[in-house]
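README, section 4: Worked example with a bound small molecule

Sections 1 through 3 covered apo chains. Here we extend the same pipeline to holo records, where the ligand is supplied as SMILES alongside the sequence. The molecule in this example is pyridoxal-5'-phosphate. Nothing else about the input changes; the structure line simply encodes the ligand pose together with the chain.
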Amino acid sequence: MSKIIKDAAWIWKNGDFVPWAEATLHLLSTAVQFGSSVFEGIRCYDTARGPAIFRLPEHLRRLRNSCRIYRMDPGYSEADLTEACCEVVRRNGLSACYIRPMVLRGYGTMAMDGVGSPIETYVPAWEWGAYLGADALEQGVDVCVSSWQRAAGNTFPGMAKAAGHYNNAQLIKLEALANGYVEAIALTTAGTISEGSGQNLFAVVDGGLVTPPIEGSNLAGVTRASVMQIAHDLDIPVRESIMPRELLYVADELFFSGTASEVTPIRSVDKIEVGDGKRGPITARLQERFLSIVRGEHPNNHGWLTPVEEG
Ligand SMILES: Cc1ncc(COP(=O)(O)O)c(C=O)c1O
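The generated complex, written as structure tokens:
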């Protein structure tokens, strides 16, 4: 569950640091009026070599892609933003934390396109624990299928991680919470499985992994790609396939993947138990390897960790 977070001291803003409380926007900023903000969610882990950011280049590449899709030039290179992410962790004295780079259209024009508003870039970071609750990683979560669908292809670009898209994600999540679930799985407008409100989805069927393709409704998750690579490392077959809704009720195992959710088992969908209602063995193997990599404990980490001290 989301919680009130502990403020950090500093936020990186357009190349400088400002105190947390001073990183404010005008009410009539284009981002506030029309949702013109693209962002990333990145985890930094506490490792034996100090804080290390998980898959920073891939997150910054996706941020760049989101900027391109929305015709926003952040004015900072990936090298600049790499340094900003490392420095915001160092300067705030953080170890395990969440980093949220944001590129947005600020205050300037009232026009909906926002072209006359300045592009502003921020990098906040804060301490953050388990997203779906402390027990979720072990016990799994109870979810439902949402009555809200993900946006159809060529409406909201699924490959962009843009704030406006999260109105749909909020509807999915709010409905789930109102009905007593922790999360929901949304379908595409074709009625096939898309993803959670802020997580990708995997099923285990006949000893192998299946996940929906990136087809315009779902985000190309960095954790999703990591899970697919780890499955490969562990000789677990993995394929991308259109998945009918009912697969959720017959799969041997199901789990979410995401920066916030990491690898979270799903123990029931619409009150139908997944498998025997516990974290399944393949989910457990993938989760264990994932967590040992992000904590800097596994030797084969694919170079996925950027230590902030050397950043
Ligand atoms: C809608 C949505 N899908 C999937 C994900 C998982 O992506 P990642 O693994 O890159 O965090 C996220 C989280 O960023 C998300 O917001």
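What to look for in the output: The helical segments are 30-34, 56-69, 78-91, 136-139, 166-178, 222-233, 247-250, 281-294. The CA atoms of residues 216 and 246 lie 21 Å apart.

Section 5 describes how to batch many such records.
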